Amino acid sequence: DAGSRSNWRSVAYWVCTFSINQYQVQEELGDSCWDASSFYLALQSPGCRGTCMVLDEQLHPLARSWCLFELLQTLVRSEGEEDESQSPRRKDTNRFVGMLFCTSSGILNRGEAST
What does DSSP assign to residue 45? Predict the structure, then answer.
């Protein structure tokens, strides 16, 4: 809607592909605690409003362990937030929207993608 477009400068995106050096993953992850990883911390951030997984025709992201980790954490967070909102749902533009599956032609969850 027009009201949310006026706030576009306050929107930030975190791109996991660029968050760690892909050639030094072990060093980047440190002591290998998943709950201290940049992936987990970004998904748990109060400012995180959702997760977007960009899919190709072969669904390669679904074969990567970190992508599956992000999907799992998104589902866990979505379920937790649903449990917290048992009261009548108000229109909350800051609520967590969950996982969006995106392709080059649109967002699958919203029926906006084509073949």
Answer: S
